[in-house]
């Protein structure tokens, strides 16, 4: 039975025996955590379910810490305290079952699994710090999970599945999303300084206070990435748990005394809404409409790339003789084909110089390569086709440049060379805003050290969407 939810931070410094005098700088957070602990005690919770970004993290699924009992400490931060809780086995099994109904992989990690993945058996500080305030009582049972790196909507969908498991339980359950907010609020912060960190924190807190859950899915992904946060995905899972519920949301505190944002937010259910009010359904419809709109307006070259992949995987015949293609289709040119699924890269393969007689054939060749032969990803499957979006870049011949001053990541792609190593990055990519970022990524792709000297080339593209 779902009784309560909360978003909480997890800095060890808010424990007085660790932070000592420094803990006073986070007084608002400590007071809010103590207030939240009083609320949970009054609600007589029997189980706490907690999502931690520092627990086991998997790309496409969820890991639950298995076993009969879970223990943890903060010894590496200077505390001699330790904690231990019994696992709510029934809830863990139910979560696994409900997640799998949504075709989201979910497993309980055994001791053997932990060893195989190189993970420790003890709970991480993302669990221990919050529970040292909220569940300092071994009578409370625990289910502790990591998080996934699924797209935002699927992360929320995972939370919806977890919510079904929680509702089926006879126990009184509180659900906690552990996560700090931006790690770059001021110079000297753990992730350095970036003004978008403050923008992210302020926007997130305002949306939660306004109880505008849908708007969270409209946040600029670049802003979220630049914020260097570790709580957004666990928050999406928590909100998914409350899908279909009327919820009173209250921001109990927010501060960033050490350059990291700490938010304490409570979510109190006030009764179930009508089934039609499911935000998950609204978000799915919105995504499909966006995809339909994009495909209705896609350029002929993008349609060519998409239908090449679809026909190849579905075994359909393919002909282009009746297509109304621009004249440049029959001219040779290098081409990159990029494929995304739910906003996440799914494959990208290209050629700087033409390898085929025409741009048309270059696109078709590279579209198949991007879908099936990009070594970073599993081959695209037929059941994914309806979720994929494509873009095509026509590559202009590259030219050498003397140095970074002649680069512009919005206008030019870059090629870096060192010895026999070469890396390339297309221009105008989401999240790449400076020359320094562009060069760093291109070097990493090539296996070139960050301070290793390189020869530089730049190139322009015509991008079709």
Question: How is the secondary structure organized here?
Answer:
Elements: E1 2-8, H1 16-19, H2 27-42, E2 47-51, E3 57-58, E4 62-65, E5 69-73, E6 82-86, H3 89-101, E7 106-109, H4 111-116, H5 125-134, E8 141-145, E9 147-148, H6 152-168, E10 173-178, H7 195-209, H8 221-227, H9 232-241, E11 245-255, E12 262-272, H10 279-296, H11 300-314, E13 334-341, E14 344-350, H12 359-372, E15 388-395, E16 399-401, E17 413-418, E18 421-425, H13 435-446, E19 455-459, E20 461-464
Parallel strand pairs: 1-10, 2-8, 2-10, 3-9, 4-7
Antiparallel strand pairs: 1-12, 5-6, 11-12, 13-14, 13-15, 15-20, 16-19, 17-18, 17-19
Helix pairs in contact: 3-6, 6-9, 7-8, 11-12
Structural key phrases:
13 helices, Protocatechuate 4,5-dioxygenase, Chain B, six-stranded mixed sheet, 24% strand, 465 residues, alpha/beta, Glycoprotein, Type 4 Pilin, four-stranded antiparallel sheet
What does this molecule look like?
This protein is of the alpha/beta class and 465 residues long. It has 2 domains: 2-284, Protocatechuate 4,5-dioxygenase, Chain B; 299-464, Glycoprotein, Type 4 Pilin, CATH 3.30.700.20. Helix content is 34%, strand content 24%. The protein has 13 helices and 20 strands. Strands 8-2-10-1-12-11 form a 6-stranded mixed beta sheet, sandwiched between helices. It has a 4-stranded antiparallel beta sheet with strand order 14-13-15-20. α11 (300-314) crosses α12. The radius of gyration is 25 Å and the shape is globular.
